Amino acid sequence: MKIFKPSHYKDQFVFMKSIDVPVGWRRQYCGIECFKKDGILYYFLDNEYYFKRHGSYGYWDDGERFAFFSRAVLEALPYLEDKPDIIHCHDWQTGPISVLLRAHYKMLPYYQNIKTVFTIHNLRYQGVFPYSVLSDLLDLSVTYFQMDGLEFYGKVSYLKAGLAYADCLTTVSGTYAWEIQTPYYGEHLDGFLRSRSHNLHGIVNGIDERSYDPANDPNLFAAYTDYEGKMANKEKLQELLHLQKNPDVPIISMVTRLVEQKGIDLVLRVFHEIMSQKVQFVLLGTGETKYEEAFRYLAGQYPGRVSINIHFDEGLSRKIYAGSDVFLMPSQFEPCGIGPASGFQIRDSASCEGNRRP
Questions:
Q1: Comparing C-alpha atoms, which of 126, 116, 165 is closest to residue 143?
Q2: What are phi and psi of 51, to 5 degrees?
Q3: When you count CB atoms within 10 A of the terminal residue's CB, does the N or C end of the chain come out lower?
Q4: Does the pLDDT value for residue 242 go beyond 80?
């Protein structure tokens, strides 16, 4: 079995062109590269100063990094093979694209018919930065700050920029589209979202049944269609993660971001109680340093019973799903339950909705 790693794809990237991207008063390098797979052409924007780092976000200069990225997307468009009709933006990291398109590009013939769609995956994460980014990084006038634009309690919200200026808004389930218009789930933006409710649509996340089919998934130790096949994956998972080999001991797993919203505090509070039940525990994910360190400490207390993997690996996540007996997901709320769907081969994608606690 040959599993391709990201570096394998990177070696096949084709350099197209380098451009200068305005970031406030500066101009920064951006390389445009492309890669074709299964008939689909993918484009990548290169700037090692901003993005050659461990992890995609969570740095002190994220406001500048994603101001650059948003502007670079728009600057790169004329050099692509085809002109896009729609730019589909996801979460706060791409929120500025819609407002930058309107402020700096709409007067240019090439850009005039391009529309934007902005998808909210989780409203809690908003990309809020000091007021100074408005002019220093985005080169926008105060007009875009006022009149229910980018202003968020005296600061600039990249997420609100997407909500305010995209032509259409979507989120990851119909239930969540309704919930974020209520004070409880609205993260102080519920009133603004109600004002745009005519442009807000919930499209439930689905699952790629072919990719996640355990009978054909090349990421697994062995393809399976029955209980015995799953147990074979469990044995190999215990071996890979240096857990005690015992088919009768349940494996409880979590594949998650280590942030408050995911219920990590609850797990840590009852962790010793969980382990008193004679189980094994597997974690895969990254997040806040305090949670990463807490789980590393707990792994040291339960050698052979706890495996803590502070990174992300798509192939390993599939192996964990296949080899686990119990999938733990104590989230405070979930816009759409992708984890249970991918972990347990849920066939009805509508069951993604409603995976939340009050």
A1: 165
A2: -125, 0
A3: C
A4: yes
**Residue 343's pLDDT is what?**
53
Q: What percent of the chain has pLDDT over 70?
A: 92
Mean pLDDT of all residues belonging to the chain: 90
CATH 3.40.50.2000 fits 6-202, yes or no: yes
pLDDT at 301: 95
Instruction: For residues 317 and 203, give the distance between their C-alpha atoms in angstroms, rounded to a whole number.
Output: 25
pLDDT above 70: residue 357 = no
Q: What is the DSSP string of 243-299?
A: ----TTSPEEEEE--BSGGGTHHHHHHTHHHHHTTS-EEEEE--B-HHHHHHHHHHH
Mean pLDDT for 42-67 is 92
What pLDDT does residue 279 have? 96
CATH architecture of the domain with range 227-352: 3-Layer(aba) Sandwich (3.40)
- Indicate the burial class of 280 (C-beta count within 10 angstroms; 0-12, 13-18, 19 or more): buried
Is the Cβ–Cβ distance between 7 and 35 less than 8 Å? no
Q: Which structure tokens are listed for 59?
A: 């740095």
Radius of gyration for the alpha carbons in the chain, expressed in angstroms and rounded: 22
Domain limits, the chain: 6-202, 227-352
First to last CA, the chain: 44
